[in-house]
Automatic annotation (TrEMBL):
It comes from Varunaivibrio sulfuroxidans. The keyword Nucleotidyltransferase does not apply. Residues 280-422, 455-597 form the SIS domain. Its EC number is 2.6.1.16. One of its GO terms (cellular component) is cytosol. Residues 2-217 form the Glutamine amidotransferase type-2 domain. It is found in: Cytoplasm. GO terms for molecular function: carbohydrate derivative binding; glutamine-fructose-6-phosphate transaminase (isomerizing) activity. This is Glutamine--fructose-6-phosphate aminotransferase [isomerizing].
Amino acid sequence: MCGIIGIIGKGEVSPLIVEALKRLEYRGYDSAGVATLDNGGIERRRAQGKLDNLVGTINAAPLSGTIGIGHTRWATHGVPNEINAHPHATDKVAIVHNGIIENFQSLRAEVTAAGRRLSSQTDTEVVAHLITLYLDQGLSPQKACAKAFARLEGAFALGIIFAGRHDLMIAARRGSPLAIGFGDGEMFLGSDALALAPLTKKIMYLEDGDWAVLHPDGAEVFDEDNAPVTREVRLTALSGATVGKGGYRHFMLKEIYEQPQVIGDTLQGYINAAERTLTIPGLPFDPTAISKLTIIACGTSYYAGLVAKYWFEKVARVPVEVDVASEFRYRGALMPEGGAAIFISQSGETADTLAALRYARAQGQHILSVVNVPESTIARESDATLLTRAGPEVGVASTKAFTTQLVVLACLAIVTAKARGAIDHDDEARLMNALVEVPARAAEVLNHDERLRALAESVSEARDVLYLGRGSSYPIALEGALKLKEISYIHAEGYAAGEMKHGPIALIDESVPVIVIAPSDDLFDKTASNMQEVIARGGRVIFLSDGPGAQKLGDLAAATVALPHVDPFVAPILYAIPAQLLAYHVAVIKGTDVDQPRNLAKSVTVE
Ligand code: F6R
């Protein structure tokens, strides 16, 4: 989280830095700031809240200078106010940081004892003072930084400028991503290639432990032992063009509506619809040889992994373990040498997922990732990557990334099932036909938007909402609840429908809407019984089912939405959409910041 940009330019850099921060705002929007060197002295503008506030501040008091750094913050240490906003500075250095300095308390005590006065509550400011102490001891900027970096524990990406040095910027990466861009007599630093792409296409990704000295005409890179190293400079395919809302009120709504298109685009990467063939070349493991699959991800991507577990176990007959990355990475999981592990991530930068990937790599696993950002760290560190073609997802709540992840995982499950002989040709054809129809069925689901908007009125008045599902609808219940809570701030929980009677049913009364997700599948009657149990206790059920389901039980529910009747295999992809729309409309009714909900960020690069 937190976005970093740095520019050694030929002209005024402040407007370019602000533009780049717009492309980085998805990383955090608690505060933003810019520092430049004006006649050799450090000048800063910072503002609490969204980037627009900083733009106002800079318009009122413009910043001049040909070298500068900028930051958009997702607060870790210290409340999100102006004093805690980056860049942090002394009279000698200004610094921007993404990550967490875990030993900042002891360093803070040390620099304070040495006479430095800190003004913020952040872990970052201490680094500025530590470097300043070393500069005061007569060390060069390079030596002062190298000495300071060696003292830091935790994860960080840093960008640093020095008073009086228009030609020098120092960067460091440990844990948090950082890229260097090469221009013509100009140099750039950024949290990702997306931030740099409109400025230059020549990108170098720093590796873990690297630090770099940037001059107007290039960069020297050192590893964690301070030995000079060479890192590949590649041409990025990213354009970094700012994506618009296309006439929609929010990015989230636009992205929900894009799903028929992007699901089709993603399918096209793997399925030849005319010949009805499905191929996934370059798998890093032999699907016939695997004894188990491990799937790791966070948040919504984790729920995609949970759906995939049902598919792989039921259709491909492969045992699957799914875990959230933050738990998996620390539990010393046993992974037999040569096993297969799948990492799912929209951003490809999630710190916990990346750490789990590195753990799996150290355990000798074959690493496959499902990501939406092709040049992301997770993609670069995998043996093979299956791309979702969702396009840029700007709304913080993941929507089209989720359904396209499901599409990729469904394709992989079919290919695995076929390779292992778990399905015959007819089954394969049936499943593929069902998948090929998903874009059209998704478009039909969107026709229920108005109805879901009307249902959102009553849900918006609730304090708690429950989502129930069985089988592959259970992860959709979890995802529906996550969508609702993250953008409407209403407490919501997803439960396996069969678990209700083991505790949660105590919550049921007429004030708790219960969203039941029940496509007509082999578990429909079981979910129906659980729904009856809820209704018997006065629960107000919103029933998401299909034509046959609605006919059987629609009269019992307070409200029913009858979605298209599809093969149960693809139902989770389609049933995610009404859950997204319901959450969206509830949030709009409640007047929350739908695209940038409080306390969240799009890319979670701290653990
Ligand atoms: C919820 C949401 C998050 C992300 C999670 C993982 O709507 O977007 O739960 O799914 O932070 O992010 P990625 O997929 O980028 O690894």
